[in-house]
Amino acid sequence: MTAYYLQLIVNGIIAGSIYAMFAVGLTMVYGVFKFINFSHGELITWGAYLGLMFTSPPFSLPLYQAAVPALAITVALGLAQDWFIYRPLRQSNPVSLLIASIGLSYLMRNAIRLFWGSDFQTFNLPVARGLSFGGIYITIPQLFMVTAAVVFLTILYLLFTRTLLGKSLRAASDNMELADIMGINMTRVTVTVWVLASVFAGTGGILLAMDTNMDPMMGMSSLIKAFAAVLLGGAGNVWGALVGGLFIGIAENVSVAFISPGYKDFISFALIFILLLFRPTGIFGIKGGVR
Amino acid sequence: MGRITGSAIGILFVFWASAVFAGTISVGAVTPLTGKLAVYGEGFQQAMLLAAEEINAAGGINGDTLEIVFEDNNSTSKGSVSAIRKLITIDKLSVVFGPAASSNFLAICPIAQKNKTILIGAESAAADITKCGSYVFRVFPSDLLQGIGVSELTTALGYKEVVLTYVNNDWGVGLAEVFKEKFTASGGKIIDELAHAEGKTDYRSEIFRIKRHNPKAVVNLTYIKEGATILKQAYETGLDVQWLMGSAAKSPKLVTLAGKATEGIIGTYPTFSQDSPVLQAFKAAWEKKYPGKKTPIFGEYNYDMVKLAALALKDAGSADADGVKASLMKVSQGYMGTTGDKSFDEKGDVGATYGRWTVKDGAITDYR
Amino acid sequence: MDYLYHILVLAMIFSIFAMSLNLELGFAGLYNFGHIAFFAIGAYTSALLSLNGVPIPLAVVAALVVAGVIGAILARFTLGLTGDYFGIATLVFAEMVQLLLLNERDITRGPMGLPGIPRPAWIGSGPESLVWFLLVAGMGTAIVFLLLQRLANAPFGRALKVVREDEFVAQALGKDTTRLKTKAMVVGSVLAGFAGVLWAHYITYISPADFTLNETIFVLLCVVVGGKGTNLGPLLGGFAIVFFGEFVRFIPIPSEFSRFVAPLQGMIYGGLLIVMMLKRPQGLISESRR
User: Fold this and answer.
1) B206–A256: do the CB atoms touch at under 8 Å?
2) Considering the domain boundaries, does residue C277 fall inside one?
């Protein structure tokens, strides 16, 4: 019985670490540009499908090599999003940006359907038994996911705290106009934010697809989880996103022990709803913390 | 530009010529060519086209060419309603082949009934369809029969207690309801019952919940992709049970996707003699028209549906719906298609015998 | 003709739906991305009641009341949120409603949907009575349009626009902004419920699959393309988008390419939203400023 709950918690942590990777990008964009980027979910999907593209003919690269061009294109997509759509809209109200990003998300999702079809796809990794630790099963891709998430988030931490670029990023998310006046190179900040958001989304997408499968809706459903994580952590707060991601992952996995699995997604929806109503600043929105 | 205009005129001429010199009899088809069922829709369409081609090669309908007008329904009920409205009013067709998902089929069957248009289904299984009315037929057996089949399989294998899981859509829920009723009536016990959402990529929480009950057997009424994901993830997480499944998961694609995790699963499916000459002929013709492509899921039913409709049109001598309806009843009696006896009962349903399938050494075979 | 009637009925239903969204989105500046929930609530309430023997007029009234009450409750909880957070909260609300419809099988029959929803006897009970239904839908559309026109030109409508432009100014002018916005949301929800009622009794079969995010995008498109903040805009937007969707059927496309049609259509819808935001955020019919 304890093994059962432990297993659920372990799975929650694995899912949560991926949600955190998605949430980080979402929250950085929100932090600097102050709008909710709906199409962030499609960067996740595109990352995974581009990985698929480079592992299948004519490229037929092994997955770890395929990830490089896949991520490069994902980054290009992220930058293109900003350049062609969000930058021209920078001065309009956040809701115009939100509608545009909903439109973009729909556009990119249907483009996936156009190229790869609606059916789900896999990397065709061999089916193997997971490793058993005292009755708790973890698969190799899952171990890989957690490791990658830890590595990526550590790098991000170092980038934020130890580099000048990190300082400009933090300044920009505190107050963009002020940062601009203070002579911080805003183009550099913008590019960095989109590159980081795209890399995290694309990597997370590939990892998620390794563990499960990919389908055109994967980004959309992950985005909702990521959004819940962002709200939990406080919008714009990178560390909050990590904690929030883990919390959502564990909450929805453990909840299945008590409620019908049909309501699994309901947990994150309800969390978002309740959080918005009572604590729009986030549970872990520590003032003055690392942002 | 000139070339385009030229070829456009050419195409128009061909249409005009074919319309004038050889009569055409058109029937409609509301088919999921896009949306979530598009994966299956393409196969349905190919099977129907194959049947139509054979009919036309053999002289058509009393000399007229049989043509199928396909309308996409986007796999939604809204799309299905628009599609059948167009087929009935713009194309003025009296025979329409219905869409795949039972929910889509149910949305349009009142329209067909009221407009006195014959609606034939080749893969809609919901028990409710029986109540659609006198203009609605299907060559696919009702869920009711399959639910009984799965229940009998479970009992026959000696499982008294099972966990039941099913895909949370019209097909899964309908089948599960019938199974539950029959299985508990025959003294079986359902330890836990859980629906799994359609089209998810991660079913581990559901699997752990199943695992907690330590069942010997799990009845899993699901589709190919959901089934493959569940079987694969169950294998990875060390859930070793006897899986009992329905017909919709019976596909080589299941084995391709989930590999050795599918080994030993047992399922039921509406069966028909595998060595009947009609079926052999269908398979040969399929291989010839679509070389290297596997026959699609429910392809035989779609093929039978078109053949049967053609026979009825021939017998009726016109496309008048009431005439075709009577002829359809008449010609179906004792008609042996690729999928066996297609005699319609007074509700427009067909009977079926249920076979059992299993996966052995990576191939789907009959379970004995 | 039936096919044309059918498209007209569809267009009218979606126009009503679009106009109801516009009252919140265009007039009050409330970016409700979960409006489909009220469409679903109206459809399900009326369908369930009339299937259980409640006379249809009563069922319809009950559906409108339920939609309005739930709208008021949602307003009570979400109006404190700023623009984009309000959008997300409503979006999530709609997803929750959809999951409830899907999983509360004892009440809603879940994914099996509700077949055989009755129509008023004087309309005729079958899908054949399209002309009559067209009349009903047409009258409904006209009434909703005139009602919203009246509201827009009444002090209420003008006050809403002040709230939209600047909440502080509105407060300084002594307007109870929360009250105004709540009213807008209740009326919007009732009208969305009305569109849902028409839909349920027209199609006679509903299932949770009819009420997804795709429909939200669809109606958002109707409003944004038509022109938010006017009543004529969403009305025409609804017609334009529905007719465009059906028009695609008549483009001759070889069957091997037909699988590309729906994704392309989706891409066009998405692209249109972006282009509208970039080039003409006010929509085709722009709001006259007074």
Assistant:
1) yes
2) no
